[in-house]
Amino acid sequence: MSRPSVTVDTLATGHSPRGDWKPLDDLWRAAAPSLRARSNDIHTPLSFMFAELVLEAHPEADELVTRVAILLHDSGWSRVDPAKIISEGFRGDWRTSDVRYLHEQEGCNIAREILPALGYDDEFIAKVTDIIDGHDTRLEHRSVEDAIMRDADRLWRFTPTGIGLASGWFGKTPREYREQLETGTYPELITERAREIATAELTRSVELLKLDVL
After folding, report:
1. What angle do CA 133, 46, 93 make, to 5 degrees?
2. C-alpha span between 11 and 176 (Å, rounded)
3. Could you give phi then psi for residue 3, rounded to 5 degrees?
4. How far apart are the C-alpha atoms of 107 and 196, rounded to whole Å?
5. How many Å apart are CA 130 and CA 213, to the nearest integer?
6. Eight-state DSSP code of residue 202
7. What is the chain's alpha carbon radius of gyration, rounded to the nearest angstrom?
8. What angle do the packed helices 40-55 and 160-169 form, to 10 degrees?
9. Rounded distance between C-alpha atoms, residue 202 and residue 11, angstroms
10. Closest Cα to residue 71, out of 14, 16, 132, 10?
11. Predicted local confidence at residue 2, as pLDDT
């Protein structure tokens, strides 16, 4: 990935999302018990902020569908055997492992369980679960909302926090994981805004974690 001078608004350059959108604190509270597995209580809020940052460049997207989908996308890990999350979900052919499919299915189940009580109708819930189902295992995105959620799910990995956690999951050093980000994750990003954000975040992470040295 290229390293041009970076001016994009993102967390690494001291910016936060500016969108005037519906607060989702009630959903965060309802989902909290399902976000404790696999450090998703760290991964998910960061990915949520990246989704909002990308949404600012895509006014055509349904922001509520996107934000609810990213909030709940990995909740299903809470129903996967903890002993299998790393050994099967992050080793070998992890993209097609049974636990990957299972966490998507259970994420859809959790969405169907908690969203009705918060006032979301069946049509809205179906849009959310259509994104959650296959967000790791399906090769193609189906909508702009799906694309933004997928990009946000990857963008957190470019931060120092993401590198710190994910390098351990994949059994790599931070420097090795940086190489994975550049050669594997970055090419998977869909939107131009996400690529700009990834460049800014990784540039800052390389500086902070001394990845050109260590």
Report:
1. 45
2. 23
3. -125, 65
4. 29
5. 43
6. H
7. 16
8. 130
9. 11
10. 132
11. 54
Paired tokens of 175 = 């420097």
Instruction: Check residue 89 and give its pLDDT.
Output: 66
3-class DSSP string for 125-170: HHHHHHHHCCCCCCCCCCCHHHHHHHHHHHHHHHCHHHHHHHHHHC
Q: What b/e sequence results for 94-126 when a residue is b if at least 16 CB atoms lie within 10 Å of its CB, and e otherwise?
A: beebebbebbbbbbbebbeebbeeeebeeebbe
Entry pTM: 0.94
- pLDDT mean over 78-87: 87
Sequence-ordered list of residues with C-beta below 8 angstroms from that of 57, at least 6 positions apart, any chain: 191, 192, 193
25-62 pLDDT per residue, tens: 999 999 999 999 989 999 999 999 999 999 999 999 99
For the stretch 130-152, pLDDT in tens is: 999 999 999 899 999 999 999 99
- 178 in helix, strand or coil? helix
pLDDT at 71 over 60: yes
The CATH code that applies to domain 24-209 is 1.10.3210.10
The domain limits of the chain are 24-209
How is 48-116 classified by DSSP, letter by letter?
HHHHHHHHTT-TTS-HHHHHHHHHHTTGGGGGS-HHHHHHHHSSSSGGG-HHHHHHHHHHHHHHHHHSG
- The token duo for 66 is 């996107």
Identify the DSSP state of 8. Answer: -
Residue 3: pLDDT above 70? no
Residue type for position 183 = T
